[in-house]
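INTERNAL TRANSFER SHEET
From: sequence group
To: structure group
Subject: Inositol-1-monophosphatase

Please process the attached sequence and return the structure record in the designated field. Keep the field labels unchanged so the import script can parse them.
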Amino acid sequence: MIGSANLNIMVKAARKAGRSLVKDFREVENLQVSMKGAGDFVSKADISAEKILKDELLGARPTYGWLAEEGGEIPGDDPTRRWIVDPLDGTTNFLHGLPHWAISIALEHKGQIVAGVIFDAAKDEMFFAEKGAGAWMNDTRLRVSGRHRMIESIFATGLPFGGRSDLPATLQDLARLMPVCAGVRRWGAAALDMAYVAAGRYDGFWERRLNPWDLAAGIVLVREAGGMVQPLNPAGNILEDGEVICGNEPIFNGFAKVVRG
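Return from structure group:
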């Protein structure tokens, strides 16, 4: 692959952590244990993958900052750059033996996401993008879908679970959107949802109450694939608010109007 030194570092780190997670995933598929036992095992797999990523990324760029799901935030000597990392997006899928989860790595520079990698290790699909250099999946250049009609479009979102307070808003979104589109999918891995928008597999995606590491890499992927990415609240900030809406340009305004109500 041809890319910057930083992007190559990110891809190498994702592949190394991916090998570890695939090995653990095979164990999860065969585990005959209680939910607690499986959950403990997956937590260890998650933490192990984060350690690999941290060693690789900070080993190569020790002055950069760090923000990740398990390890929290570590300021860097270089205040303008930081890694934003989710070692296992789609943990519940992983726990249940569903092969739909990913590693997500983003590089932020002066408040902007300039590079992103989302690695679906179970399917060996490496999505990556750099600002100004396009978006790719393995050796294939990515473009968002070309659909122009909402009724022909498929969208993705996350459905709140466990009594979360944003369930009523999401149900209202679905009530407005489902009558005017071709379908809504909920696959349980926000990073892959955004990668699939970049790949033209979905026409759009929206979700609330996400974390920066769920979103960061997907932002640059969708934009570099020709898509539009905005905060759900037009006056908001995607990473700070944890809310996003994205899609291809022809249907974006109509899609956003429906979701925003």
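Handover comment: Residues 144 and 200 are 4 Å apart (CA to CA). The two ends are 43 Å apart (CA to CA).
Transfer complete.
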